[in-house]
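discrete fold record:
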Amino acid sequence: VGANILTERLGQATFVENRPGAGGTLGTEFALRSPADGHTLLLIAGSYTVNPALYKLRFDPVGDMTPVIQLSKGAYVVCVNPKVPARTLAELLDYARQNPGKLTFASAGNGSHLHIATEYLFGMAKVRATHVPYKGTGPAITDLLAGNVDMFIAGTEGLMPHVKSGKLRALAVTTAQRLAAYPDIASVAESGVPGYDVVAWHGLIAPRNLPAPVLARLNGALDAGLKAPALIAQLEPTGVSPAGGSPEQFGNLIKAEIPRYGKVVRDNNIHTQ
């Protein structure tokens, strides 16, 4: 989305280069070590705020970057296989309390944002469950559908088609408020875990010391593009919304999430494998 908007608004070709490895930290380091001229931007997600607690980073995730804009905001959805004897999140948490460690939950990998979001939920609810890590969301959803794992917290775009078909049961969304696209699904906070709020987001950052005029031009073009009615109409039925806003707003989100998820990592002694 960001690349398309930049191409349309600035009239310059935009290229996407994937650099995987070490939870995305290798690509992050490359991007943040690039010249601060506005020609190299980095697409990040929630995992960016988890990685400082998991890896020995060779960069400062706050001091070595310039926040540009938050592109999207959405929620994860708490889903269970229908064989699980719970029709609400409160019932699921009661089941977990009565059967410590029996409930199994999938993640997209050890230390992934989905893993942290789930441990955060169970920590706040003071219940124990058994983690089953997978290599990505696809295999996790496959095993959830097969009943090989009980529960999975993941993006609405991957899980809701199976909820609509009756193959999975949705219990809650992770944001503080219900989603307009799925108004019948309660939030975690209103389901017995007040204060829980996990946003699924994407955004763009640049190397530190990006000149103010360049930052203003990039943010302005992207913010205007994110307000396009066609884009909003395309995304919102999936439970995802364009975000936009100022660089400062996005920077504050990043600064708030790093210590919050760092505590979850430490409290649960989570390590990458």
